Amino acid sequence: MSPDFVTPGSVRSAAEVNEEIRALWQRTGGTLSAEERAEYELLVVEWAAALRGGVAKAA
Q1: pLDDT at residue 7, rounded to an integer
Q2: I want to staple 36 with a disulfide (CB 3.0 to 4.6 A). Which of 2, 10, 27, 32 is the partner?
């Protein structure tokens, strides 16, 4: 996943992003390719931002 796939202003909770991270690890059996590693890193950044409240909550 590249930054182009992340929609600016998209709203996802930390729980939603965490679920995607878990699914990625399960789908890959715990071994990430370079592309999957890049996707994982983006997800972790998004997850951390959601935890900090960096992502606006939907009304």
Answers
A1: 47
A2: 32
Estimate to the nearest angstrom the gap between the alpha carbon of 37 and the chain centroid.
Answer: 11
- Concatenated DSSP letters of 12-48: --HHHHHHHHHHHHHHHTT---HHHHHHHHHHHHHHH
Residue 47, CB half-sphere, CA atoms under 13 Å: how many?
A: 14
User: What length does the chain have?
Assistant: 59
Exposure of 58 in the CB half-sphere (CA atoms within 13 A): 5
pTM of the model: 0.71
Helices (H) and strands (E) in the chain, counts: 2, 0
